[in-house]
Amino acid sequence: MSFVLTVTSHSVADTHKLARHLLRQLPGRAVLALHGDLGSGKTCFVQGLAAALGVNRPVTSPTFTLIHEYRGDRPLVHVDLYRIRDSGDALNLGLEEYFDSDGIAAIEWAERAAEIFPAHTIHLHFEALPDLHARQITIHSPLALKL
Ligand SMILES: Nc1ncnc2c1ncn2[C@@H]1O[C@H](COP(=O)(O)OP(=O)(O)OP(=O)(O)O)[C@@H](O)[C@H]1O
Ligand SMILES: [Mg+2]
What we know:
20% of the residues lie in helices and 31% in strands. The protein has 147 residues and is α/β, with parallel strands linked by helices. Helix 1 packs across helix 2 (42-52). The longest helix is centred in the N-terminal third of the chain and has 12 residues, at 12-23. The relative contact order is 0.27. The model has no long low-confidence stretch (mean pLDDT 96). It binds adenosine-5'-triphosphate and magnesium ion (MG). Magnesium ion binds at residues 42-43, 61, 80, 108.
């Protein structure tokens, strides 16, 4: 059973607010798979998570380094799979290590390695809408979440 929620964000601040709001409902170990095109708002969402966790370092896209770890109220791991080819590459990267560790793992371009994500993964799909600052965010979650 999976719960599906859809929300429209009208600004960066809206996306940050959504991140803050969802964060409060997440279990101690959460895997967030972030899907969607370039510029659809995935990193922006992770920046919202980091801000809500009190991370005081700048959160930049791990496009080249692939994995960034932050210490906030809870550990936050930010991964970007854009540059990998497939699940094999993701396994070589040690991605599985983060599936059962404390804190939040937020993984961009999750579609690159869809097969290896655990059942407790919360999937968020980001889509740009015609309005420059509007994004549709669809959440598929195995646990009930409120918007
Ligand atoms: N409602 C919104 N939510 C999120 N970002 C928005 C919104 N409106 C405008 N933006 C802008 O869209 C861009 C989103 O970029 P972001 O880096 O978050 O995308 P991404 O999905 O991580 O892309 P990539 O696949 O390249 O990593 C930012 O420049 C941000 O300022
Ligand atoms: Mg990004």
